[in-house]
Specification:
Layout: H1 3-26, H2 34-38, H3 46-61, H4 66-100, H5 102-115, H6 121-135, H7 143-153, H8 165-168, H9 173-180, H10 196-202, H11 207-220, E1 230-235, E2 246-251, H12 254-273
Antiparallel strand pairs: 1-2
Helix pairs in contact: 1-11, 3-4, 4-5, 9-12
Amino acid sequence: MSDTDNVDMAVQLLHDCICNATTTVHGCPTARTSTTQHRHQPWFDIECRNKHKEESAYAKFHPNNHLARERKKQLKQLLRHKKRTYKKLQGRQLCALAKIDPASFWKQYSKSKERSIVISKANLVAGFQKLLEGQCPSNTTGGQDSFTDQVISSLSHPFASDDCSTLNCDITLHEIAQVMRRLKHNKSVGLDGIKAEFLLDAGDMLHVPLQIVFNKLLQQGYSTGLSIGVIHALHKGGDALQFENYKGIIVGPVLAKVFAMILEARLSNWAEERGLRARG
């Protein structure tokens, strides 16, 4: 078994442990309902929230009761009414704006029209593949030492080669604890399904397993599973049909994020001590 297989197995084992512990504490994940999707809509007011809480309570404690079905039906009716009323109000306000300030009306109308025109998925995929092929290094077989040598040779500041030993030393529990404090709640989840909240709720119980896995990544190579992410395309402005007007944001596994944050903090401290950080 190669080093890469050992690393992948260790990462998968840690992933399964976190998922099993989360399922035991919070239960199995449920499908996202339409009510959850509506929570961030402007028409989802306090009345909708209270009705949703009431429906959730009945669905949790009395799932097969006729009262639970009745509450769910009432919630759907309320959401349809709120959404329909909000759209009518927006339409009346837009008509009134056309009479008072035609320039503002056409400006707002053009924005809503532009949002309805989006680039096709095929063009996005082709564009990101072209970017990836152009940015991939031509030689990635040199290993960790050759990569470090390339970085060192690109720097004009002279320093001894043994100064880089702090960058390649084993990851400590203190570094993991420092990074875990920087994790934030309510962030997007990668394909692995592990939220940052899962790691935060576990406290320091996960620090030792994370240390073992991260040191394997540092010594034996990066895991294939942690390299997979989802690219979200964000429109920067301009023609929405042109790929050049989009930027991609990759949402990857939270374990990969924690590992990258440790390396970033280590590299930042190393550069600060030697005055190699860019100014500005």
